[in-house]
Each structure stands twice: as structure tokens, then as C-alpha cells.
Amino acid sequence: MNHKFSFSIFRLENSFKNLLIFFPLFFSRREILLNDVISLLTGFVIFTIMASICYVTNDYTDRKKDKKNKLKSKNIVLQKETVILLNLLLFVMLILIFQLTNFGNFYLIGYLSMFYLYNFFFKNFFLLDVMILVSFYILRLFYGAELLNITISYWFLIFFGTLFLNLALFKRMIQILVNNLSKAKNNIIRYSIENISIIKKIIVASTVINFLTVFLYFFELFQPETFKFLSNEETRYNYDFISLMCVLLGYIFWTQRVTKLVFEGKIKCDIYTYILTDKVTYLIFAIFSVIIII
Q: For position 29, what pLDDT does the model report?
């Protein structure tokens, strides 16, 4: 076991996931104010510290399994005493945050509680582990929304919920294929090639719901009273039809491309690592940003 210290232990590259905290503001029509940005940046730092300690804890718990996992076999693992100390320091930090600042809320505690439940109890439950992984991302969205008192619409929740479900299932599929897990009773995860079929079906169903949500949301923009109970005034945009179609087609192209690559077993690394290094993803994101800004 490698105990050599390195900042890579904390998986700081995963801090990009904490940018979800900014999404409620980014996807709302609210004016972006400096104070709001500072609040979200502070929340981002808090969440990054907490999540990094969670990653360290997870790596220690899975240290034996990860030796056999081709995607994680090179992970550096801290000693037990260090992991315990980091978690104690995290508790102290959270107590101070709740006592002295306005950055402590239910979703912060919710994330940490869900992590411990996942790490020590539910990690080996088929599909339940995936749902908990999805909840980690949803809680980030709600944390950012709570900091700025932004109401998250049902459209927003359904869209990102199904998107995160796909990403979590991609993660499991890649682990199965890269490690060639032929049996469910393996020493890495409670999934095997036998589960690929059901996972693909869930991904397809989730993608259909995801696309349908986008279609209906766009329809609601032009007919505001149609699905009013699913919407929120802060997320009703006034973009023209052509701009919306460009966003829709770009998103469909990106989704089907990544899905196809995963299904064909062509992605040999963690799905989030792939997305962070994928030039096509950055190009599509840049186009989206230009359309939204203009």
C-alpha cells in the first residue's frame, strides 16, 4: 500500500463536480451580482474540502478492492490514523461553519450523511449505490440554490436527475467492461457483465425522459401556462427558436456520442475524467455559453 503523500490523494480534479453549486444561478434569469458570486465561491471551497476528505475516506475503505480495479489501482491511500484525523477536522470545520457563518445548511449535512451511509453500508447494494451517487450531485445543486435563495424548478430537477443517473450508470458500465467482471460476486463492485443489459435499458429510458424534459421545457417557454406547475419564473428564458434548437441539437449530439462510446467499451477511464479531457465537450460547452450570453 502506498502511503506517500501527494495532493492527488484528495482528487482535486473532482472539484469540478462542485461547480454544480453555481448552476442554479447560471441557469436562472437572476442578475449575477458580485456578492452572489463570492457566496458561491465560498460554498465551493467548503464543499471541495468536505468532498476531498470524503474521497480520501472512500479510498481508504476500498483500498483492498481498488488494488484489483484497473481504474483505481494506482490510487494513493493515506494511513488509517490520518483519515480519522481528517474526518475529525471536518466535523470541527462544519461546527464552526454552522455556528459562525451562513454557509451551513441542510444540504451540506445531507451530503456528508449520505456519503457515510454509502461508504459504510449501501455501496454494495445493486442500483441503490447508483441512486446515492446521483443524490451527491443533486445535493450540490440544492446547496448552491439555498445559498442564494433560488427556487429549483421541477424541469431543472428532472433534467439533471436523469443526466446524473446516466453518468453514474456510465461509471458502473466502464468499471464492468474495463475490469472484465464476468461474475456479480467479484471483489470490486456488485455488478458484472450479466447486468450490462439492464443497465443499458435504464440508460435508454433515462435518456428518453431527459430529452422529453428538454422538449417540453422548450414548449413551455413558448406556451408559459402549459406546464406552469413544473416551471419557475426565474428559469423562463426569452431565447429565440433558432438558438434553442441549436442548444437542443448540440446536447442530443453530445449525449448520443458519449452513450455510444460507453456502450461500445471505447472509454477506458472514469467517465468524469473522460469528460474533463474531451475536446468535443469543451467545444459544445463553449457554443452553449455563447448562445446564453448573446
A: 78
DSSP secondary structure, the chain, as one string: ------GGGGTGGGGGGGGGGGHHHHTS-S---HHHHHHHHHHHHHHHHHHHHHHHHHHHHTHHHHTT-TTTTT-----HHHHHHHHHHHHHHHHHHHHH-S---HHHHHHHHHHHHIIIIITTSTTHHHHHHHHHHHHHHHHHHHHHTPPPPHHHHHHHHHHHHHHHHHHHHHHHHHHT--SSS-SS-S--GGGHHHHHHHHHHHHHHHHHHHHHHHHHHHSTTTTGGG--GGG-----HHHHHHHHHHHHHHHHHHHHHHHTT---S-HHHHHHH-HHHHHHHHHHHHHHH-
Q: State the average pLDDT over residues 214-233.
A: 73
pLDDT at 1 (0 to 100): 46
For residue 2, what pLDDT band results from cuts at 50, 70 and 90?
Answer: very low
pTM: 0.88
The amino acid present at 181, given as its one-letter code, is L
